[in-house]
Description:
This protein is α+β, with helices and mostly antiparallel strands. It is 38% helix and 41% strand. Helix 1 (15-32) packs antiparallel against helix 3 (70-79).
Amino acid sequence: MFAVTVVFQMSPENLEQFMPLMIENARASVETEDGCHQFDVCTDPSRPGDVFLYELYEDAAAFEAHRQTAHYKTFDGAVGSLVLEKSVRTYSTVAQ
């Protein structure tokens, strides 16, 4: 498996516009991408400007395919001006 974590930081007043777009992107990813197994959108009331994503893909190629979808490109283009900072980290399963 290939895990992706993303933290968006934005002004709290942009959350109302951002969240429906984020939730739609997550829904479309899970429902239409064979390689996307999980896409959680998380917040913490004590940090109202932060949105944390946990995404689980079949492999790195599935994540790259996600970034090429129309729904991702639409989302990414729509939220660019709302986001102050974005941090992406990826992790691969370690064989034991």
